[in-house]
């Protein structure tokens, strides 16, 4: 335990975590990270909080008004609950507040920083809403940005994997310019959700001066100190001259999360039950704060396993790092101040499992959580390779290492006897193979992955999945002891800006940890999965368009049959 955690009087911090479907507020004890109380607000707009379009499966937007209502309701609920369960708690003992959000989720705003969707004129315009992280409508613009950046001498994509994504800041803005010109013309600036929320609650929404997160800027907007911040006006003009003014409406310096962005306004304090002036930390993306809340450090990769998966690592700021193709950024200070933050991830994990349950599961398994549980129990009885199946985990595109949203899923080896449980396990294995591809890419460029800490619902509730990941990746897997690691990471930065701990590392030492259980690789399973992974990489490279020359795949089904027969003890 750090010296800073040895406090005579308890102090608390609040972490506010904006997810895809809801916002959660957490009250944490600064002494040990204990999760005192939490409250959740489900976004009321759209389908489970997401505005969708039946004609365009790539579209995913959100109503910014939900973010404002969600902050007040969730924080007030958590503060009230904390007072009810902890006799030592009082709002006066809350020292600071931190925020994390999805990203890249940029919002078009007016000159005062108010989202356009909050104006009557644009209330029902999809282009004026927040462009949620998983909106892929800008895939053509992302390809164009990649092509132009490859030709630019400053090499703007060197620090974010070499390929720009449709999920990211500039591609979405350029898409708005073309698809919603009336919105683009009305927007004075664009702000990330993780910058908007701290700005809103501290009363600084001026696009010129509001605190901009280096996490969002560096990983999604091609910001880097090496070339003076955002890409040059010349580069933006090569995409569209209309983008050029936006560069000047963005703070010149992007900040790490141990910096204070301001204090709570009187109105927000009254709505939440906290004190006015409470220090608020610079915001960041949920996965990065989840890594902090899981105790990320050099050599340890943190997997935030939810609807999608984000993989986060850090490396000392003094270390010489090579540029890593396919990752989502290598950014100074984006995770832990003073260290490089490395981000990668997979576009569908929990979403992929839910898709299988929703569309391909017989009625006898039930629905929702019941079906997941029954499929897991049945799939757990299968030996590695026994299904004869092999899948690609690209049902929502590939985020890392191919960075291609226009890829789809694949399932090879089905027979008339293939069961729902075999299908389910094959998809879990596919996401584990995708995880290993990320680990290998990071290690190929000199960053060792010695161990893995996982967090999120899958990590906590599905031991079978965790064992599969340990076997496929051939590394020990631990699970964060915090059930709300993203919110805890936000609270850690609230504790730092509030003075409860001197820096992020001290706060992590006091407030984070892992569960006692460790998933260790099983040598027999490792051997089988090594063979299956070899076949997975052949499919991965062939259908991902990176095999040169193109891979001949006629042997894959036969090898899957051989592995199936060996796993079942059958003779060919």
Protein described:
By secondary structure, the protein is an alpha+beta fold. The protein is 37% helix and 19% strand. It has helices at 64-85, 139-151, 169-179, 181-186, 193-202, 214-220, 233-239, 244-247, 266-272, 286-293, 350-360, 368-379, 420-444, 457-461, 463-473, 485-497, 504-511, 523-543, 556-568; strands spanning 12-18, 22-29, 35-42, 51-53, 56-62, 94-101, 106-109, 130-131, 189-192, 260-263, 279-281, 284-285, 300-305, 309-316, 330-332, 339-346, 390-392, 410-412, 451-455, 477-480, 514-519. Strands 15-16-14-13-19-20-21 form a seven-stranded mixed sheet, sandwiched between helices. A hairpin with a 3-residue loop joins strand 1 and strand 2 (22-29). The termini are far apart.
Taking all Cα atoms into account, the compactness measure Rg is: 23 Å
Number of helices: 19
Main sheet properties: 7 strands, mixed
Instruction: Report the principal-axis shape.
Output: globular
The rounded distance between the terminal residues' Cα atoms is 59 Å
Q: Estimate the helix proportion, in percent.
A: 25-40%
Instruction: Indicate the multimeric state.
Output: single chain
Number of strands: 21
Average residue pLDDT = 94
Key words describing this protein structure:
seven-stranded mixed β-sheet, 572 residues, disordered N terminus, 19 helices, alpha+beta, five-stranded mixed β-sheet, 19% strand, 37% helix
């Amino acid at each position: 335990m750090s010296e800073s955690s040895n406090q005579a009087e308890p102090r608390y911090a609040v972490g506010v975590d904006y997810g895809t479907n809801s916002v959660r507020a957490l009250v944490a004890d600064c002494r040990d990270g204990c999760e005192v109380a939490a409250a959740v607000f489900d976004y009321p707009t759209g389908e489970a909080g997401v505005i969708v379009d039946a004609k365009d499966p790539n579209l995913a937007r959100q109503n910014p008004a939900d973010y404002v209502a969600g902050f007040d309701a969730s924080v007030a609920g958590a503060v009230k609950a904390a007072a009810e369960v902890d006799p030592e708690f009082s709002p006066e003992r809350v020292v600071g507040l931190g925020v994390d959000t999805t990203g890249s989720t940029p919002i078009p705003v007016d000159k005062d920083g108010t989202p356009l969707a909050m104006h009557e004129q644009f209330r029902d315009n999809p282009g004026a809403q927040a462009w949620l992280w998983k909106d892929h409508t800008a895939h053509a613009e992302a390809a164009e940005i990649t092509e132009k950046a490859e030709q630019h001498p400053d090499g703007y994509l060197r620090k974010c994997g070499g390929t720009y994504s449709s999920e990211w800041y500039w591609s979405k803005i350029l898409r708005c310019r073309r698809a919603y010109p009336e919105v683009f013309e009305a927007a004075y600036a664009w702000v990330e959700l993780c910058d908007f929320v701290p700005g809103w609650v501290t009363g600084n929404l001026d696009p010129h001066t509001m605190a901009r997160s280096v996490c969002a800027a560096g990983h999604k907007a091609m910001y880097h100190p090496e070339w003076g911040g955002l890409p040059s006006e010349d580069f933006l003009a090569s995409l569209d001259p209309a983008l050029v003014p936006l560069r000047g409406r963005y703070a010149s310096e992007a900040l790490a999360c141990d910096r204070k962005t301001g204090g709570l306004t009187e109105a927000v304090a009254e709505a939440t039950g906290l004190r006015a002036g409470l220090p608020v930390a610079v915001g960041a993306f949920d996965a990065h704060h989840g890594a902090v809340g899981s105790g990320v450090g050099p050599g340890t990769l943190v997997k935030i396993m939810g609807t999608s998966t984000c993989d986060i690592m850090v490396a000392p700021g003094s270390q010489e790092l090579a540029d890593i193709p396919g990752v989502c950024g290598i950014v100074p200070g984006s995770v832990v101040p003073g260290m490089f933050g490395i981000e990668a991830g997979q576009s569908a994990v929990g979403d992929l499992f839910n898709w299988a349950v929703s569309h391909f599961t017989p009625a006898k398994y039930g629905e929702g959580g019941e079906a997941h549980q029954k499929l897991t129990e049945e799939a757990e009885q299968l030996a590695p390779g026994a299904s004869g199946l092999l899948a690609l985990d690209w049902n929502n595109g590939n985020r890392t290492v191919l960075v291609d949203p226009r890829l789809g899923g694949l399932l090879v080896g089905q027979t008339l006897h293939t069961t729902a449980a075999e299908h389910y396990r094959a998809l879990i294995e596919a996401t584990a193979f995708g995880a290993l591809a990320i680990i290998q890419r990071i290690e190929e460029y000199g960053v060792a992955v010695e161990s893995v800490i996982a967090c999120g619902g899958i990590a906590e509730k599905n031991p079978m999945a965790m064992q599969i990941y340990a076997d496929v990746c051939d590394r020990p897997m631990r699970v964060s002891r915090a059930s709300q690691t993203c919110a805890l990471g936000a609270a850690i930065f609230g504790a730092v800006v509030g003075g409860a701990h001197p820096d992020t590392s001290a706060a992590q030492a006091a407030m984070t940890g892992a569960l006692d259980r460790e998933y260790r690789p099983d040598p027999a399973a490792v051997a089988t999965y090594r063979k299956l992974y070899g076949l997975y990489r052949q499919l991965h490279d062939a259908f991902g368009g990176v095999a040169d020359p193109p891979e001949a795949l006629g042997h894959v089904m036969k090898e899957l049959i051989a592995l199936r027969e060996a796993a079942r003890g059958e003779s060919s």
